[in-house]
Amino acid sequence: MDLTFFFYLSSGLFLGWSLGASDASNIFGTAVGTKMVKFRTAALTASLFIILGAVLAGAGTSATLSQLGSVNTLPGAFMVALAAALTIYWMVELSMPISTSQAIVGAIVGWNFFAAKHTDITILSKIVSTWFLCPVLSGTVAVALYWLLKKTFHKSHLHLLRQDTYTRIGLIMSGAFCAYALGANNIANVMGVFVASSPLKPLSLANGFELSAAQVLFLIGGLSIAVGVLTYSHKVMHTIGNSVMKMSPLMALVVVLAQATVLFLFASRGLQHFLLAHHLPPIPLVPVSSSQAVIGAVMGIGLAKGGRSLNWRLIGQIFVGWFTTPAIAALVCYISLFFLQNVFGLEVYR
User: How far apart (Å, rounded) are the C-alpha atoms in residues 88 and 325?
Assistant: First the structure.
């Protein structure tokens, strides 16, 4: 395999690492923040299931990003991923949980502008609508789950220690599900722009099992996300786990379950086919933000409890980050593509 490809892929790996440091920390941030799960256990569990989700179920959301903008050269894909990664890294340094989905969408739109390619407004509006729908849906699911689990624990008359044990187990199991859903939903953000120009071949494994060329790419991206989780996710875990709102272990469990549910809904091809087969409106296969999902869940519970415990100043700063992220990523991508083409003479589009 030409080493040039892996050089260009390095920006995608950096983006994956950044996603692991930022978005993936949302999986166990509440659990670690409430000291119900150790960081080491959380990071290892998240890493394993993110890789599984990326390889086994990552194709759906990648197809949607390809419709938004098919980046058809490796130098162009390199710069799109790098622009998104630099934007995310800067925000992570400020300890702000932001949307990797918004960063990559902004960078793709920046590439479309530079390459004079048409940006499909229907696809873009579908993606943007999920930026508003995701936190609202996550908050609604969180409120329903919180009152259901609270009533269930109350009626069960469990001893406090037994309830604590069940909550810890629930946090780890729901975190594994959430990590799988994150890998399936967000691998498109990391490797989606490389699918059209990737020279990778299918890989045959034991017992006749085969990974497609795209799945090999997703495996590499999943590993980069896992490295980000293991090495640098503790900063944003503190923000999610403690700063937005002080949470009980039960609230932490609910936040993880609500986030996992929302990520899975927007990544499941099986669910979409089921809805279409029964003549129901399908849920779009769109990479959504785990940061938005977890903040929406925390806000939903906080509002249901009166809203007094929420850190509204921090929430306002996070919202500002969500709106500025795609604009910054688009601008960085556009300027960087100009230098890549005119200074280094590389073909950034066809």
Answer: 8
Helix (H, G, I), strand (E, B) or coil at 250: helix
Residue 84 lies in a domain: yes
Number of compact structural domains in the chain = 1
**What CA–CA distance (Å, rounded) separates 236 from 243?**
10
Model's pTM, two decimal places?
Answer: 0.87
Domain assignment present for residue 349? The answer is no
Walk along the chain (350 residues) and give the pLDDT tens digit of each residue: 578 899 999 999 998 998 888 776 678 877 787 778 888 898 899 999 999 999 999 988 888 888 898 898 999 999 999 999 888 778 767 766 678 889 999 999 999 999 999 999 999 998 988 888 999 999 999 999 999 988 888 888 877 788 888 888 998 999 999 999 999 999 999 999 999 888 899 998 877 789 999 999 999 999 999 999 988 887 666 555 555 567 778 888 898 899 999 999 999 989 899 999 999 888 889 988 887 888 889 889 888 888 777 778 777 877 787 778 899 999 999 999 999 999 999 999 98
Is 348 domain-assigned? no
- C-alpha–C-alpha distance, residues 15 and 191, integer Å: 9
Asked if residue 309 is part of any domain, the answer here is yes
β-bridge partners, 211? 203
Give me the domain span that covers residue 234. 3-342
191: burial class by Cβ within 10 Å (0-12, 13-18, 19+)?
A: buried
Distance CA 303, CA 299 (A): 6
